[in-house]
Specification:
By secondary structure, the chain is α/β, with parallel strands linked by helices. Helix content is 45%, strand content 16%. Bound molecules: nicotinamide-adenine-dinucleotide.
């Protein structure tokens, strides 16, 4: 398997469409970077101009401000977002991020990536994303419940089980999804539908699907098992490191370890740890749940950021936030493959360095598509009042992941491009086919 066979970067720092649509000029702007990668793929496959401009902009950008009473009796105003990027293939779909540093351009980028991911993995959804500018760690459970319920009320008219279906993302969890489902149900007219289908990632006790919590990690590992043999790597003999040990990082770690791989370095917002003899992924997950992060884990040694990145592994799984693998990190990484568990973890500059060094990147829109795929299964179960067993969920997820990986392989062969460009081509092809038969109203 070759690396970037064109030798061209997998994204464009400049493009005439940036000017046409008045994009931010800062090359570090995340939205510019993510759309740039798509436009590179669009140019490679010859996508018509009208589709490039439709997909380079979200359909709707909703911003809300809402007051919430704190435990001390004072009120605070919070800012919330919902960006609806595209619904050409089905309802808008995408997570809600609860983070103190969330901005409109981040949400736009993540919504855009959802459109691409849903298209590639073959689920009947468009893309959306949202969030609240809040640090959930700094609020009591009661405060978070009021914040989440009030945010739901603020966007209730803009979401719906057949229109826009949110889900968890960084900082949000199944309890938050339960409060959203309950609030939306309370606010909606009682009809024949199941209003709790407005959101996925709910607890299993309240309409959630078996296998949803681990789904993104499961999809990362399904992708690795599908793609590693082409790189002459045997999954069961791989060593790996993980950046971010939350939902995606910890489940990727646990499932990959259960397939025989060995985790030897982990990092999160609290610190960096390593142990060449192996770190038990299950044991570390329990520790992180109790302590809030990897720092202080006694069965591994604390290390520096540099030591973490320079640890020799076969697979590196970034599963934290966007833009964390820039040029500096890409120069330090010591692996054969980067499996993007997080969304947009690699900047275009970082990717150029990885390509130069012959490191393969399994792109996020393929690698982390397991979450939205099982969200789709949850939605189908809600709408048909069914409850599937775990084997059914896992095997259908695996089928979607294998098909998506197949599309990426075919596009790479046809266009001789890198995997990110190939993944975008796979996604864009399905969107183009749909737009061609639908046409543009009026
Ligand atoms: P999470 O909140 O469960 O975990 C986030 C992790 O990132 C935590 O371990 C945190 O410590 C770490 N982190 C945050 N800031 C960091 C920093 N500065 N340095 C190092 N580590 C840092 O979130 P998650 O749901 O696991 O999401 C992680 C990524 O995966 C995000 O990019 C998200 O958009 C993406 N994603 C999530 C899902 C899902 O189903 N949860 C699906 C697809 C993609």
């Amino acid at each position: 398997m070759s690396t970037s066979t064109t030798g061209k970067p997998a994204s464009q720092d400049t493009h005439p469409i940036f000017e046409e649509l008045g994009f931010p000029t800062d090359p570090n702007n995340l939205y510019r970077q993510t759309v740039g990668s798509m436009l590179h793929a669009a140019d490679t496959m010859g996508l018509p101009h009208y589709l490039k401009i439709i997909l380079a902009q979200p359909k709707n950008e909703i911003m809300v401000h809402f007051p919430v009473k704190m435990d001390d009796g004072r009120h605070r105003i919070f800012k919330g977002y919902r960006v609806q990027h595209n619904n050409g293939l089905g309802p808008f779909k995408g997570g809600l991020r609860f983070h103190h540093d969330v901005h409109l351009d981040d949400v736009k980028s993540l919504a855009f990536l959802m459109t691409m991911k849903c298209s590639l993995v073959g689920v009947p959804y468009g893309g959306g994303k949202g969030g609240i500018k809040v640090d959930p760690r700094k609020h009591s459970r009661n405060e978070m419940e009021r914040i989440v319920r009030r945010f739901t009320a603020a966007i209730a008219h803009n979401i719906g089980p057949d229109y826009d279906i949110p889900a968890p993302d960084v900082g949000s969890n199944s309890q938050h999804m339960a409060w959203i489902a309950d609030t939306y149900t309370f606010l909606s007219e009682i009809g024949g539908d199941n209003p709790a289908a407005v959101i996925t990632g709910k607890p299993v006790e309240y309409g959630g699907s078996l296998g949803r919590e681990k789904a993104t990690g499961q999809g990362v590992v399904d992708t690795l098992i599908e793609m590693l043999p082409e790189l002459n790597l045997k999954p069961e003999q791989c060593t790996f490191s993980v950046l971010g040990y939350g939902n995606v990082g910890s489940w990727s770690g646990k499932i990959f370890q259960d397939k025989g791989a060995k985790m030897i370095a982990v990092a999160d917002h609290t610190g960096f740890i390593k142990n060449d003899k192996g770190i038990d992924a299950h044991d570390l997950a329990v520790y992180v749940t109790q302590k809030g992060g990897v720092a202080g884990y006694a069965k591994a040694s604390a290390c520096t950021k540099e030591e973490f990145y320079k640890t020799k592994v076969d697979v590196f799984i970034p599963a934290a936030l966007e833009q964390m693998i820039q040029e500096t990190e890409a120069e330090m990484v010591n692996c054969r493959v980067v499996a993007e568990g997080a969304n947009a973890p690699t900047t275009p500059g970082g990717e150029r360095v990885l390509q130069k060094r012959g490191i393969e990147v399994l792109p996020a829109i393929l690698c982390n598509a397991g979450g939205v795929t099982v969200s789709y299964f949850e939605w189908v179960q809600n709408k048909t009042f069914q409850a599937w067993d775990l084997d059914q969920v896992d095997s259908l997820l695996n089928k979607h992941m294998i098909q998506a990986a197949g599309k990426v392989r075919v596009a790479r062969k046809k266009y001789g491009c890198d995997l990110r460009t190939a993944a975008y081509i796979g996604a864009l092809q399905r969107l183009q086919d749909a737009y061609e038969v639908r046409g543009i109203f009026p």
